[in-house]
């Protein structure tokens, strides 16, 4: 039995915007895999909910006119993993969200909910950060777009205005072209867990596959929100795809990450794992891009 | 004749459980029941000075709020032990229904009774509790220090109990020249049972009697404890136990039944329900004792032991519950598993401000085997010997007899199970292949033995009662006080009863629900005793029923009873094998006879004065990714000698469950507490890392079937043993892979990170 005052079911994006304005205190609910858990814990006693779960126009993956990959915010994790566009252009995202919770959670949970929750451990977030994803938010005056790094304001807080719903997540063409990535979720067990640290790396190699043209790396749980390790990225750029490069790249992440001590893991442990993950992710991302470590 | 025993019969409850028809406590609870919400203490130790319920009582839907100042002054024990009429052997009475003296973070201070869950939750959040805070202590050895906070007035120094083993002369023997000293400290964590169904109970009154329906393993014991807690004659309490979703020892305690029983007496006998949330199951039910063990072995160059010493520090938590029985059982294994002439042992069970520790699958043996088997690999390593070969040399021999229990090791079980394990996991080849590895990812194999004994004789009462009733169609109801808790004993009983009486398996109707008003007395499911002890009562009662049947058959057929038998539900003349009539025809004839009508039943109690050894081992193979501080379990094999298998498929399934529990114990499970406040940090199934299917390899099970001579069915314990040895086997495999000994369970990546650094591999 949930302590629930009212449930408003939006029929369309516009309807959702109207409900948002009518019920400013209400909480948006999509798949419910976070909101219902919080309610059970008593965190939203007497809550009003706006369900957007029935808005089918917010589901599915497509390529837009500019060639960007458009992921509807209500697309479930399991649909993302099995989507042909995702598999062709940004398979690592499908792999990353396939590590969320268990099968039931992945069938119900949505990528929009995963990002709007604003938590650093979200399995989709580090990959979306690493691929320069753009968040589409629709409000009274139509859609606006923000880079994902700006969307995350602080732990548990995102740039979602009172009239808005998140409608899509976009991966620009220049971000995914010729790019291969790898994600490692480091958790205390192999399913039903939240990342202790998650690392997503992607690379573009030179035509001869020997040099790293571009490397991007992002972490979950290395700070209050997901973050990019840009010092490491610069370290690898233009360098040969070798084990030494991977080592230098990995060592450089310590310049950028800010893990903390908590009962879940010590700072020293998180840093150690973060370095190890960076190295392994870079090697695997390069291998997937056709590179051969010299 | 044994037609059914030994066969993998389909569970008698399989269809109902698969179809969702089986009724559990919540299914039986009327929708109109009042519901409750406990108010838990927000300090680890303190005295409640006031409870303000005014605001809570204003919440619509709230019926009453009861506080620790409202409950009766009857101190009661909670342990699911058989009662002793000797006051010196009775359990410690240290509980009230609600606590004025808060002894752990989360202790029960008040309870809201309401019409629905939302009202109850809202009101519980509005109950204001004031405390006089006291210092608290979480660590067992800290709690033994002279200046430690005192938790129970009657137990100065916080020591609930201290027992000793003194054999030979440890001090003198350890001075023998040329001895190798191997010493270690081995730590086990506080873990929880995590059965699927949280504890739930309901209570209502009829006349002046209280009926409690509960998810419990021990209905007859719960009746006694409810009577003690309420201060009423025990016959005024009736306890019903329907199907339950697992217990693993947590429900071998009176949990919220006494409070629920009292609440209904305060509410005009209305039906009231206490339904634990998972967060409460972790903290407010029972946990496994965390035991820290110190072992010193003085070893001769030939590997034999000159002297051995063990010290066990058992963290009891806030209340006595099963108390010292757990540490005592664990320490009891030490001098038996690897016999030595000079042994000094001390076990202390000590109160701390943690949740109360009670019974949990293995009852002290998983902790004891963690220490014993980690230590044995340390000794083997110090001697430069292979751990299996070394154990073969020093383990309990065939023919060993324990002076106290009079248990005899009738077979060379330990060496037999090791032989099976060695072969199953290809131990020798792998041991050689993994001998000189370098690099970040390494493999290893390891093993551990376990010692276990069935049931509780001669420590306490060991008896079982059974009733059988013959129906007009020749089928039979079987009732026992022994409880089906998911382990499958109802099916085993149906197989046994069918064979003893001589009727088809399908003609046995095991009455699964225990109702203390009508079910014969039995103390319930614990100590891996149900199949063993139930077997005696079923054999005895079935034979009595069969004799009555044959006497009636003799009367009707005019044949001598000695020449008659019941075979497959038919009355058969032995001398020529002719079927004279069916048992159904006989039963109907006897019941409806106008001359000599009889209701054919049998009932008896069998007192068991044995407690059979049940031994085995685990072999494990791991791959250790040293930089990632991670262990991948590649293969795990359990080998058990639980005597003759009653139902091989169910036996294997039971071992799977225990192995899973052992894997979590070794690698991931641990209830954590905030050192600053004593607050539990991870009392939920996300943060408490129960291992999942994805963390398990294929679980492999083998049996050595040495028939147990004391049992009519040749059977002995299998419920708890599977959980006893996986953790140390994994630890020893990690030692083999990396050369690093890890003495703290669970061996999480955090622990491995620290140990690999200390061990110089990281």
Note the main attributes of this structure:
heterodimer; A: 5-stranded antiparallel sheet; 4-stranded antiparallel sheet; 13 helices; B: 762 residues; 20 helices; 28% helix
Care to describe what's here?
Chain A has 13 helices and 14 strands. By secondary structure, chain A is α+β, with helices and mostly antiparallel strands. In chain A, the strands form 4 sheets. Chain A has a 5-stranded antiparallel beta sheet with strand order 4-5-10-6-7. A 4-stranded antiparallel beta sheet of chain A has the order 11-12-13-14. In chain A, strand 4 and strand 5 form a beta hairpin. In chain B, a hairpin with a 5-residue loop joins strand 13 (290-299) and strand 14 (305-317). In chain B, helix 10 packs parallel to helix 11, helix 11 (365-383) runs parallel beside helix 19 (726-738) and helix 18 packs across helix 19. By secondary structure, chain B is of the alpha+beta class. Chain B is globular, with a radius of gyration of 27 Å. Chain B is built from 20 helices and 27 strands. The A-B interface holds A 1-3, 42, 45, 102, 186, 188-194, 196, 263-266, 268-269, 272-273, 276 and B 116-118, 121-122, 125, 627-629, 668, 672, 674, 681-682, 685-687, 689-695, 748-750, 753.
